[in-house]
Design brief:
alpha/beta, six-stranded mixed sheet, globular, single chain, 6 strands
Length: 254
């Protein structure tokens, strides 16, 4: 019996383009980078805690270049290629550390992607993967629903529920799997600034069948709904939930 077909929710090409846009916008003085900085800091803290000093590392999706530079300073040989297909066997392997930032939120075959990550590790190697999931972006979601109250279009990605992640890691054969989350609260004076921050950080739309842009009336409703959530100082609190997956390949290499 053949395996069921994997639904195509995301476009790999659009996923790659949003990352390229983040890289191109990074040098702007006002470009948002708080998510990347949080993921980099978290990665380095985890490596220090488990006393894992990699000799050969693979870094995927980290568009600032800061993590690769930090690992190289610590003595690691670092590969940071662009364009690796997360849902196919990697052309590279034998890494004792793989770090993935902000990519696994937009893959069609997440279990397959987790298997390919494990297979690219050397025996005993470690994976740390961060992405936005859970109950992220409630203010943006509410604004999009208000924009099109009668027939809302799919404009925001479905997000991975961290409660389902442990089973996915076990299914993918990760050893010592751990799933944890933490939230960042960021305050915004406008919906437009929030959208700009998402684009700055590689979180634009990667849906395979994106909806048409909002019309003027719908955009006005979205902005008004967002502004209606403002607190006394006129700013809206938006929440980003960062999901982190960690695990190893067994010493036997299975």
């Amino acid at each position: 019996m053949s395996a069921p077909a994997i639904p195509t929710i995301f476009s790999p090409q659009r996923r790659d383009r949003r990352l390229e846009r983040a890289r191109s916008r990074y040098t702007r003085p006002d470009a948002a980078r708080f998510l990347a900085e949080d993921m980099i800091e978290d990665t380095l803290e985890r490596l220090a805690f488990v006393r894992h000093t990699p000799a050969r590392a693979l870094v995927l999706g980290e568009w600032t270049g800061a993590l690769a530079a930090n690992l190289e300073t610590a003595g690691a040989e670092v590969a940071a290629p662009a364009g690796i297909d997360l849902e196919a066997p990697y052309p590279l392997g034998g890494f004792d550390l793989i770090v993935v930032t902000g990519l696994l939120d937009a893959v069609n075959d997440l279990p397959g992607a987790l298997i390919h990550l494990r297979n690219a590790l050397a025996p005993g190697g470690l994976v740390i993967a961060h992405f936005i999931g859970g109950q992220s972006l409630p203010a943006l979601r509410a604004a999009m629903l208000a924009a099109e109250p009668d027939r809302p279009a799919a404009r925001i990605h479905p997000l991975v529920d961290p409660r389902a992640a442990p089973a996915l890691l076990q299914r993918a054969g990760w050893k010592d799997p751990v799933v944890d989350t933490h939230a960042l609260a960021v305050r915004y004076s406008s919906l437009d600034r929030l959208v700009a921050d998402l684009r700055d950080q590689g979180l634009g739309n990667a849906l395979a069948k994106p909806a048409a842009p909002l019309g003027k009336a719908a955009l006005a409703r979205a902005r008004a709904a967002f502004a209606a959530r403002a607190e006394a100082d006129g700013k809206v609190t938006e929440t980003f939930v960062i999901v982190t997956l960690t695990g190893r390949r067994s010493l036997a290499g299975t």
